[in-house]
Amino acid sequence: MPYLPIDRLRRSCGMPSAEPVVIVAPSTGGLRVVHADAQALQRGVRQGQALAEACALIPGLRVHRQDDSADREALETLAAWADCLSPIVHLEDAQSLLLDVTGSERLFHGESNLVRRAVEGVTAQGFTVTAALADTSGAAWALAHADERQMVVSPRGHAAADLARLPAWSLRLDAKVARQLRDVGIETVEALLHLPRASVASRFGEKTLLRLDQALGDAPEPLAAFHPPPVVWAQTRFTAATDRLDLLNEALDHALSRFCDELDRRMKGTRHISVTFYFEQREPQVIALRMSQPSRSRPHLRRLLHARIDGVKFADKIEAVILWTRRLEALDAPQQTWLDVGEQDDADLAAVLDRLSVRMGSPAVLRPHLVDDHQPELACEYAA
Q1: Distances (CA, A) of 132 to 34, 151, 173, 299, 311
Q2: Contact 73/272 with Cβ under 8 angstroms?
Q3: Predicted model pTM
Q4: How many C-beta neighbours within 10 Å does residue 310 have?
Q5: Each residue's pLDDT expressed in tens, for the chain with a length of 384 residues
Q6: Distance CA 259, CA 295 (A)
Q7: Measured by CB atoms within 10 angstroms of the end CB, which terminus of the chain is less buried, N or C?
Q8: Is 356 helix (H, G, I), strand (E, B) or coil?
Q9: 16, HSE (Cβ side, Cα atoms, 13 Å)
Q10: Strand runs (DSSP E) across the chain, as ranges?
């Protein structure tokens, strides 16, 4: 998923797809671009570029802060969905999944159908995706990242031939090693294959040789299967599809009651709730609710949910609504003091922050964090 962080933002914030977007993070010398969408890349924005330079290239550029935890949550959600394709789903990196589909192709009437189902499923969830199926994990990763096609099925026994034309970095090499190879004129996997093995190990490290062998199937690469945490969920289904807000709020209240009952049973709270709306003719729509502290308070969650959906434009009449979360947290009892004051103030402040975040969006409600930087103006950054 080459644009996973930006696709996640578009999906949760409803950003128009026509606007160029970048995601930035603090770095030496100020904010720098860590992710850019296809439109921004086409207009000259590059990863690692200073934000000021990117804004000079594209006046009015939409800028968002990096949120690694939200990106990881999105990737894990996709990994949980991919369980319908294979029992072994591995989180390879921040934007890639590896699936061992040995034997699964017969359930989908062929390898091409399996890859197509994967692409269609991820695309339906709002993410740009490229996919490849090959003899090895390394070859599949390389083809998915470096081949120009959106879907690639490498015939059995063709891994070496398909890899030969790809850039050397597609073997999942360290960026430093990829630069060293490029500096000495080794641009493709084929060129790397022509080097003596002893020379590759001595000049570019044993790991480079291991990645090459893994991609060719000459070294094993076991995949650690991702096991998603248990889902707490509650559903309300309408007898007839509706677009009435009063009925929708009532359905949310019924689902929330069962949702909180399950949290009570598990003695847990959550600060991440997803609400999925199912329509008659269109793909489901997901709305995320994030809180500053874990909670299972019905009144608090009810106010936030109603405020969150107020003003949301739904694509069609709604058939069903599901509340769900995979993020459960312990609810610590507040520490008691001699005068027993302060805890209610903290709870009230958290409730206010949650309501502001829901009304204005999480990026609008920030708090400062100290940063270890010798420049005073860079010694603080803000996060949602």
Answers
A1: 25, 6, 19, 47, 40
A2: yes
A3: 0.71
A4: 11
A5: 999 999 998 887 667 777 899 999 988 778 999 999 999 999 999 999 999 999 999 998 999 989 888 899 899 989 999 999 999 999 999 999 999 999 898 899 999 999 999 999 999 988 999 999 999 999 999 999 999 999 999 999 999 999 999 999 999 999 999 999 999 999 999 999 999 999 999 999 999 999 999 999 999 999 999 988 888 999 999 999 998 999 999 999 999 999 999 999 999 999 999 999 999 888 888 888 888 889 999 999 999 999 988 878 887 899 999 999 988 898 865 545 544 545 556 667 777 888 888 877 777 888 888 877 777 877 787 877
A6: 12
A7: C
A8: helix
A9: 5
A10: 21-27, 30-36, 62-65, 88-93, 96-100, 131-133, 151-153, 232-242, 268-279, 285-295, 318-325, 329-330, 367-370, 380-383
Q: What is the rounded distance in angstroms from the CA atom of residue 240 to the CA atom of residue 384?
A: 39
**Collapsing DSSP states into helix, strand and coil, what is residue 27?**
strand
Alpha carbon of residue 234 to chain centroid: 23
Compute the residue count for the chain. 384
Tokens representing 146 are: 């470096």
Spatial separation of the C-alpha atoms in residues 271 and 345, rounded to whole Å: 19
- Phi-psi region for residue 311, left (φ > 0), alpha (ψ -120 to 50) or beta? left
Question: Nearest-CA neighbor of 137 among 181, 176, 184, 172?
Answer: 172
Q: Give the tokens for residue 67.
A: 């949120």
- CB-count exposure of residue 174 (10 Å: 0-12, 13-18, 19+): middle
Cβ atoms of 287 and 277 within 8 Å: the answer is yes
